[in-house]
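In response to the reviewer comment on reproducibility (Comment 2.3), we provide here a single inverse folding case reported in full, input and output, so that an independent group could reproduce the run without further information from us. The C-alpha cells appear first.
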C-alpha cells in the first residue's frame, strides 16, 4: 500500500515535469522568430549506403567476406572432427573398458572445448576486423561530410540510418556527393 502510493506520487511528479517541459518547448517555439528557422540549412547523408557503394567499402566487404568464409571453413572442419569423435565414441562406448571410456570422454571433451574456443576466437577476430574496417571508412567519410557541409553552408547534416530521420526530400541528401568525393580522394588500389 505504501509502495503503491509512493509510485503514484513519483508518476504524478514525472507527468508534471514532462508537462512543464512540453509547455516550455511550445512557448519557445511560439516566440521564436520564423527567420531563425528559415536560416537553418539542413542536409542528410546515408553512411551505410555510402560504405556499400564506395570502392574501398566494396573492397573491405569482399575482404571481410573472404575472412569470414576462411574462418568458417576452419571451424567447420573442427566441428566435423568433434562430431566424428562423438559418433565413434557412441558406437564403441559399451565395448570399451572403464579406462578407455574415460580417456575417450576426456579427448571428446577437450576436442569440444577446442572447437568452442576456436569458434569464439574466430568470431572475435572477425568482429574486430569489421569494426576496424568500418571505423576507418567512417572516419574518412565524416571528414568529407564536414568539408561538404562547410562549403555549402549547412547548419546541420543528419545521418539518415542512425539519426532517426523518418523523411527527407531527396534534394537535401548529400550521399551521392560523399561517394563521389570519397572515391576521388581514395582511389582504388
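Designed residues, in position order:
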Amino acid at each position: 500500500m505504501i509502495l503503491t502510493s509512493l509510485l503514484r506520487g513519483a508518476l504524478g511528479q514525472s507527468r508534471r515535469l514532462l508537462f512543464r517541459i512540453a509547455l516550455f518547448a511550445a512557448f519557445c517555439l511560439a516566440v521564436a522568430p520564423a527567420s531563425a528557422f528559415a536560416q537553418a540549412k539542413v542536409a542528410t547523408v546515408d553512411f551505410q549506403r555510402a560504405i556499400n557503394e564506395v570502392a574501398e567499402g566494396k573492397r573491405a566487404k569482399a575482404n571481410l567476406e573472404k575472412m569470414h568464409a576462411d574462418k568458417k571453413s576452419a571451424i567447420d572442419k573442427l566441428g566435423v572432427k568433434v562430431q566424428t569423435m562423438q559418433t565413434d565414441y557412441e558406437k564403441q562406448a559399451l565395448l570399451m573398458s572403464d579406462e578407455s571410456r574415460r580417456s575417450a570422454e576426456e579427448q571428446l571433451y577437450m576436442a569440444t572445448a577446442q572447437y568452442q574456443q576456436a569458434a569464439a576466437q574466430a568470431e572475435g577476430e572477425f568482429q574486430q576486423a569489421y569494426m576496424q574496417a568500418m571505423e576507418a571508412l567512417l572516419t574518412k567519410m565524416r571528414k568529407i561530410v564536414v568539408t561538404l557541409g562547410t562549403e555549402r553552408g549547412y547548419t546541420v547534416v543528419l545521418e539518415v540510418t542512425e539519426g532517426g530521420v523518418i523523411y527527407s526530400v531527396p534534394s537535401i541528401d548529400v550521399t551521392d556527393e560523399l561517394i563521389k568525393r570519397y572515391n576521388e580522394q581514395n582511389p582504388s588500389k
